[in-house]
């Protein structure tokens, strides 16, 4: 499994002069679980925006499974197999968890299928299985707006999986969760990592330590360093970015 | 493991059975109301000396078809169109043109001679044909809406922008229909009551009865169509687009197609409504069907009844229009004040409309007024199936 | 040369009216994402205020410069109304732009009918109603359980106050008859005459002169834009408005009173509508639906201009104004006279209403290239 699932070369994104991403190079192997960390404003979310097609870069290449995805729109990229979970849970509040999952799970996503298609047996089984996995089987048929924050987080991860993507982009999955919930989400991600490639953006170092195998540090729109958790933590540049340089701290 | 699965699967079956029962119930209710409208109410009103009201009811039932379309795009999909008068007028004019052409061979409608036109404009020609007219009534609005919708939705123009653009489109159509005397009789519009249809004059009571019946039947059909659209996966998609359109893209759907589709459907409904309304009121003019006020009024019918409830759209249309008729018969000046206040009140006090309110707070309020107060607690506790399940099984 | 100059000035004078009308709308829309459908009616009220001021000053030495007083009066009247509208309705609807649209449309209907039927009777009725209703609320507000009985109180107070007001006015109407019940303006239009120094025109070229009223409006527009620029960029409140326009939540966190900023902006935007109304009253007869003639064009200016930048509105207004004029006056006819088909098409659209058809088509085409307008906002926050 050494083929690259995601390759990014010389990526630059600027918003009227301000370079949110500056000449960034990045690659990920298939089946990898990668954690991206970085201080605020490092360009993490913009980075995800580019991969999912929401923002178009000024320069650079983004290849997914060897295919250039820049010309495609968000929904086309989603259909190719890149799924995204947002920072704050974004589920359809007026729909039930089951409907949320069915919507993401449907294989045919055009108007015609929505009119005449019925969920197939395997789709229904997937949805039921997922409801079990994310622990919402008992609340499958109440509107999602009645769910708690943690339940919504899990539901959104479930929706992501229901899309059966090859690459999962997960933006701060444990923001605002309790310690137990954080651990539950961590285990869920680890379980998913066995069959998917996952990229996680996170701030919570405790959590990063729980799941990380390889970590990428972004700073000012470029990759600062890359390596295992220990390597990264002891890298002087990372310490400087995160903690401020020792000189400054002395003053 | 199997045992823990049980509660998830069991209620599902119960849900299905309940759904089927609800469906049969709904069909029965709709059938009863339709029969009442068809058989009981017209003779009753005539007996009470209110025969005029039958014609009004027929017209307002036609308007209710348009309201269903508005509800579909505004209530369910969150697209506020301020230009549905376009589609209403296109349907009305299509039928109006057909009726104008019911003349001895070789003649052209009178008004052309006023403007010195001796030859029928080319785009009138197809309206000699009755089947073509039947098709045009809903197909032309559909195509216009699809084209306009595609150009707008493709670029992710939504929200207020969409509303403003539809209103501008309405003005454009108004200017066209109002200004082109030589093509479509301009300000004067097309009169339909003196033409013949099915061998009789269109204002003949028998013909009017036919159109009354048609209005009821097509309203039922429109209701069934919208019910079907909003209940299945399509309906869930529409709600998803309304609540979080960008998210839908990341789930792999292209909202443009769905929005164009639903906009076109609602335009078709408006076109049918326009045709039925025109023939029952005897005339269509740009200043009635294509005025900005009329298009926004359509929205308020839905808002009063309750957005995202199809029954509410129909109920609201009838309620507001009869209120309008009664009020403007008595105090013509007050109607605009009243209508303005209605807009304000519905938006600020009753955002879910009457039916929406009845379904939520109103129900509890009525109960508490009737003395059957129920202790209300944290809502998710009330509806938490786990709690319900425990409650049901605690007795065993 | 002549036709080009002519269309340039003709277009500019249309554009200046458009811009003046759109300015207030654009500021409000930029700040709150709210389209005020009653904006046209605020213009109409500004025009009627001008009419009232003109009549009030007719016999005084100030009658020559009544227009200056009218401008101030129109600004104050509409700004106050805007304030009431914002505090009374719009602020409850933030985050629901479509509902705001409907509510302000309701307000516009009420204002139209109000102008048609306003009389001493109606005014007194409104005064009595407000005194009773708000008096009752104020009186009940002292009670401790006010919040609990509030909705009941409102539901009871409205019909009772309305009934009393109706009853009193009805009796007074029977006593004083016509002077009391006669509408002030009626359904007919009223006419504002330009002061003497604005009559006539500036001869630009042989056979064409630019009316002074048009020049005055262009001048007024420039002054208003300069004033708004100065206000937004050089005053503390301007800074706050710009801050809230860019990031409402952050501004609130920094202690900027966003509610006051909203109210202020809405008042200023409405006041600008009043000035615009004063300006258009010089161009022709004023009637209760004058606002409707301008409103859709001003909406288009906002759509084409994009959100949050005044420059966008300026460029959009000038382009739409020019285009409208050029198509309507068929100014390009000499240039396309080589082709009979093109000439026929140009002739077909060469009228005010039909020019709008062309302009709309071009706007829709334009939006295919620049969906977010001329000067869109960029960055991650958009569409988040």
From TrEMBL, chain A:
Pfam family name, one: BCA_ABC_TP_C
Molecular function terms, GO-annotated: ATP binding; ATP hydrolysis activity
Keyword Transport appears in the UniProt entry: yes
Name of the protein this chain belongs to: Urea ABC transporter ATP-binding protein UrtD
Signal sequence, start to end: none
One Gene Ontology cellular component: plasma membrane
Database matches in PANTHER family: CONSERVED COMPONENT OF ABC TRANSPORTER FOR NATURAL AMINO ACIDS-RELATED (PTHR45772), HIGH-AFFINITY BRANCHED-CHAIN AMINO ACID TRANSPORT ATP-BINDING PROTEIN (PTHR45772:SF8)
Domain of life: Bacteria
Spans traversing the lipid bilayer: none
The UniProt record lists the keyword Nucleotide-binding: yes
Stretches assigned to the ABC transporter domain: 6-245
Alphabetical UniProt keywords: ATP-binding, Nucleotide-binding, Transport
InterPro entries: AAA+_ATPase (IPR003593), ABC_AA/LPS_Transport (IPR051120), ABC_transporter-like_ATP-bd (IPR003439), ABC_transporter-like_CS (IPR017871), ABC_transptr_urea_ATP-bd_UrtD (IPR017781), BCA_ABC_TP_C (IPR032823), P-loop_NTPase (IPR027417)
From TrEMBL, chain B:
Tagged with keyword Kinase: no
GO cellular component labels: plasma membrane
Primary localisation category: membrane
Subcellular location: Cell membrane
Keywords assigned by UniProt, alphabetized: Cell membrane, Membrane, Transmembrane, Transmembrane helix
Transmembrane segments: 22-45, 57-74, 86-108, 128-153, 160-177, 210-229, 257-279, 299-322, 334-358
GO MF entries: branched-chain amino acid transmembrane transporter activity
InterPro entries (alphabetical): ABC_transp_permease (IPR001851), ABC_transptr_urea_perm_UrtC (IPR017778), LivM-like (IPR043428)
Membrane topology type: Multi-pass membrane protein
Protein name, as recorded: Urea ABC transporter permease subunit UrtC
Native organism: Oscillatoriales cyanobacterium SpSt-418
Gene coding for it: urtC
Automatic annotation (TrEMBL), chain C:
InterPro entries membership: ABC_transp_permease, BCAA_transport_permease
Keywords on record: Amino-acid transport, Cell membrane, Membrane, Transmembrane, Transmembrane helix, Transport
Entry superkingdom: Bacteria
UniProt keyword annotation of Protein biosynthesis present: no
Membrane topology: Multi-pass membrane protein
Alphabetized Pfam families for the sequence: BPD_transp_2
GO biological process, one term: amino acid transport
GO molecular function: transmembrane transporter activity
Predominant location category: membrane
Intracellular or extracellular location(s): Cell membrane
Positions of transmembrane segments: 12-35, 65-85, 97-115, 121-140, 152-176, 212-232, 264-286, 298-327, 348-369
One Gene Ontology cellular component: plasma membrane
Family: Belongs to the binding-protein-dependent transport system permease family. LivHM subfamily.
Listed name of the protein: Branched-chain amino acid ABC transporter permease
Source organism of this protein record: Oscillatoriales cyanobacterium SpSt-418
């Amino acid at each position: 499994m050494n083929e690259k699932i995601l390759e990014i070369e010389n990526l630059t994104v600027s918003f009227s002069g301000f370079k949110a991403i500056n000449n960034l190079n990045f690659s990920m192997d298939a089946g990898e679980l990668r954690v991206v960390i970085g201080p605020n404003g490092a360009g993490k979310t913009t980075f995800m925006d580019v991969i999912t097609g929401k923002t178009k870069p000024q320069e650079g290449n983004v290849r997914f499974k060897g295919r250039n995805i820049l010309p495609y729109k968000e929904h086309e990229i989603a259909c190719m197999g890149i799924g995204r979970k947002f920072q704050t849970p974004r589920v359809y509040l007026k729909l039930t968890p089951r409907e949320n999952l069915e919507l993401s799970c449907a294989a045919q996503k055009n108007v015609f299928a929505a009119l005449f298609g019925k969920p197939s047996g395997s789709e229904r089984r997937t949805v039921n299985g997922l409801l079990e996995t994310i622990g919402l089987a008992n609340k499958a048929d109440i509107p999602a707006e009645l769910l708690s924050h943690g339940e919504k987080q899990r539901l959104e991860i479930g929706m992501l999986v229901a899309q059966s993507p090859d690459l999962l982009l997960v933006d701060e999955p444990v923001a605002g969760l309790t310690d137990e919930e954080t651990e539950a989400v961590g285990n869920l991600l680890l379980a998913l990592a066995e069959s998917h490639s996952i990229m996680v953006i996170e701030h919570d170092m405790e959590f990063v330590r729980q799941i990380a195998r390889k970590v990428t540090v972004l700073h000012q729109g470029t990759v600062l360093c890359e390596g295992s958790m220990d390597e990264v933590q002891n890298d002087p540049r990372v310490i400087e970015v995160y903690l401020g340089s020792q000189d400054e701290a002395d003053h | 493991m199997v045992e823990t699965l049980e509660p998830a699967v069991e209620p599902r079956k119960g849900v299905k059975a309940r759904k089927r029962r609800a469906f049969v119930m709904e069909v029965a209710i709709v059938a009863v109301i339709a029969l009442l409208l068809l058989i009981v109410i017209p003779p009753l009103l005539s007996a009470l000396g209110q025969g005029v009201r039958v014609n009004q009811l027929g017209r307002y039932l036609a308007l209710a078809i348009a309201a269903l379309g508005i509800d579909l795009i505004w209530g369910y999909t969150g697209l506020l169109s301020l230009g549905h008068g376009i589609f209403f007028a296109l349907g009305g004019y299509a039928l109006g043109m057909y009726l104008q052409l019911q003349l001895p061979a070789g003649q052209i409608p009178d008004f052309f001679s006023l403007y010195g036109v001796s030859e029928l404009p080319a785009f009138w020609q197809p309206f000699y044909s009755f089947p073509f007219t039947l098709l045009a009534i809903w197909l032309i609005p559909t195509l216009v809406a699809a084209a306009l919708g595609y150009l707008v939705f493709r670029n992710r123009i939504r929200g207020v922008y969409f509303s403003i653009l539809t209103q501008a489109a309405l003005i454009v159509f108004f200017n066209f229909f109002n200004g082109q005397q030589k093509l479509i009789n301009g300000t004067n519009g097309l009169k339909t009551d003196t033409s013949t249809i099915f061998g009789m004059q269109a204002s003949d009571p028998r013909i009017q009865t036919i159109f009354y019946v048609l209005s009821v039947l097509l309203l039922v059909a429109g209701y069934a169509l919208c019910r079907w659209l909003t209940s299945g996966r399509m309906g869930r998609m529409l709600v998803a687009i309304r609540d979080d359109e960008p998210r839908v893209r990341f789930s792999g759907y292209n909202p443009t197609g769905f929005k164009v589709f639903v906009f076109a459907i609602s335009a078709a409904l408006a076109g049918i409504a326009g045709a039925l309304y025109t023939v029952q009121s005897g005339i269509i003019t740009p200043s009635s069907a294509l005025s900005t006020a009329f298009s926004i009024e359509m929205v308020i019918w839905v808002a009063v009844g309750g957005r995202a409830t199809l029954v509410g759209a129909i109920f609201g249309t009838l309620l507001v229009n009869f209120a309008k008729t009664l009020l403007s018969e008595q105090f013509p000046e007050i109607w605009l004040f009243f209508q303005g206040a209605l807009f304000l009140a519905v938006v600020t006090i009753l955002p879910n409309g009457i039916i929406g309110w009845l379904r939520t707070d109103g129900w509890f309020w009525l109960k508490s007024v009737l003395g059957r107060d129920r202790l209300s607690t944290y809502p998710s506790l009330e509806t938490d199936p786990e709690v319900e399940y425990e409650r049901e099984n605690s007795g065993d | 040369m002549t036709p080009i100059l002519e269309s340039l000035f003709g277009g500019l004078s249309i554009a200046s009216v458009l811009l003046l009308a759109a300015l207030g709308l654009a500021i409000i829309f930029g700040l709150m994402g709210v389209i005020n459908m009653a904006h046209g009616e605020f213009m109409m009220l500004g025009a009627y205020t001008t009419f009232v001021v003109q009549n009030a000053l007719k016999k005084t030495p100030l009658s020559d410069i009544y227009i200056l007083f009218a401008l101030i009066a129109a600004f104050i009247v509409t700004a106050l109304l805007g304030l009431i509208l914002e505090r009374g309705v719009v602020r409850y609807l933030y985050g629901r732009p479509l509902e705001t649209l409907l509510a302000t449309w309701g307000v516009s209907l009420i204002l139209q009918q109000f102008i048609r039927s306003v009389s001493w009777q109606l005014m007194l009725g409104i005064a009595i109603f407000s005194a009773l209703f708000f008096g009752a609320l104020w009186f009940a507000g002292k009670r401790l359980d006010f919040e609990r009985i509030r909705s009941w109180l409102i539901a009871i107070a409205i019909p009772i106050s309305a009934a009393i007001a109706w009853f009193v006015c009805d009796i007074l109407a029977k006593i004083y008859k016509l002077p009391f019940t006669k509408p002030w303006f009626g359904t007919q239009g009223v006419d504002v005459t330009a002061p003497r120094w604005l009559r006539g025109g500036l001869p630009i070229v042989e056979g064409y002169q630019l009316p002074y009223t048009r020049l005055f409006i262009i001048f007024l527009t420039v002054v208003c834009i300069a004033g708004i620029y100065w206000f937004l960029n050089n005053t503390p409140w301007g800074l706050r408005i710009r801050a809230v326009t860019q990031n409402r939540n952050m501004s609130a966190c920094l202690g900027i009173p966003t509610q006051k900023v909203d109210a202020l902006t809405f008042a200023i935007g409405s006041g600008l509508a009043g000035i615009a109304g004063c300006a258009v009253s010089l161009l022709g007869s004023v009637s209760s639906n004058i606002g409707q003639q301008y409103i859709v064009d001003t909406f288009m200016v906002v759509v084409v201009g994009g959100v949050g930048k005044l420059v966008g509105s300026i460029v959009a207004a000038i382009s739409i104004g020019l285009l409208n004029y050029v198509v309507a006056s068929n100014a390009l006819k000499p240039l396309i006279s080589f082709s009979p088909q093109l000439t026929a098409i140009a002739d077909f659209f060469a009228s005010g209403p039909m020019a709008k058809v062309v302009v709309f088509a071009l706007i829709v085409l334009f939006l295919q290239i620049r969906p977010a307008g001329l000067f869109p906002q960029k960055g991650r926050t958009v569409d988040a």
